[in-house]
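Lab intake sheet, docking and co-folding queue.

SAMPLE TYPE: protein with bound small molecule
LIGAND NAME: NAP
LIGAND FORMAT: SMILES
REQUESTED OUTPUT: full 3D complex as structure tokens
PRIORITY: normal
SUBMITTED BY: R.K., bench team

The fields below were copied directly from the construct record.
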Amino acid sequence: MDKKKILIVGGNGFVGSNLARDLARDHRVTCTWRTSVDRIPGVEYHQFALFHDKEKCTAIAQSIEPDVVIYAAGSNDPVKCEKDPILTQHTHLTGANHMLIASDYVKAKYIYLSSDWVFSGMEGNFSESDTAIPSYGLGKNKLSAENYIRSRSLNHVIIRCAPLLGRGNIDHPSWLDQLRDSEISGQHRGYPQHSFHNPVHIGELSKLIHRIIENDVRNKTLHLGGLTKISLYDLATRFLAGFDYHAKPAKLDSGKRCGDSGFFAELFADLAATQD
Ligand SMILES: NC(=O)c1ccc[n+]([C@@H]2O[C@H](COP(=O)([O-])OP(=O)(O)OC[C@H]3O[C@@H](n4cnc5c(N)ncnc54)[C@H](OP(=O)(O)O)[C@@H]3O)[C@@H](O)[C@H]2O)c1
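RESULT FIELD (auto-filled):
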């Protein structure tokens, strides 16, 4: 396979750093970081956080001249996003749009990491033909960015990822790292019981991106998920049992189902209380 130049925006995050490690085996990878960096050998790093500045986004793309830009910035935590709607819009939408324009300038393929939070969460096992009906800020901003990308780019791939399983780094632990740490410290974080997902290992995302690059896949919206439909509460419970932690995570949304009126207000109030 041809060695490509890949720019990962948000490359020090949980997803970005895992992708950088895997993709650097076959390609030349450069990552952007904002507040701190945990360097991976063989990967180049640039500090960059000026997503609001279209010209600066274009300038960084012009200085690196990537063949592929992967946009992996922003948190996938719906509670954090709900608490700071301006930062959420800035990171998941405005920054994503500016980096798309920058990618067009240098004729790079643009891979946007979207999320299964664009769906209501009532069913699980989502497919490409399902209607996206987000109920909260993270999903709404993801969907707006997707629409912008589809309407303006001729060389993009949008990947709607289910929750990704794997290990993060010191600055950006994965949500499973955070679950384990919170149980060790006796915090018992809460997880929703009635919102369904199809978690998948982060290695599957790397494999998919390898295939997209190798086969020059274009202008597709792909879903990445595992075979098991499960609530985050049940997954957290099994994870803790599997690693012999004799504790159960807290339950959230015990009364209402996802999609019921008031579900998200109640869920976010509970989640905010457990995560503060
Ligand atoms: N984790 C999952 O299970 C999952 C599932 C589906 C989709 N995704 C998507 O994958 C992407 C990355 O998720 P993640 O779990 O890796 O999040 P993460 O660990 O929190 O990492 C986010 C990265 O984005 C950077 N970032 C955030 N805001 C920024 C800003 N305003 N300017 C510049 N950099 C900024 C962070 O840099 P600093 O730390 O330096 O601020 C960090 O490197 C998100 O778009 C998420 O929706 C993740």
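REVIEWER NOTE: Residues 85-105 form the longest helix (21 residues).
SIGN-OFF: pending second check by T.M.
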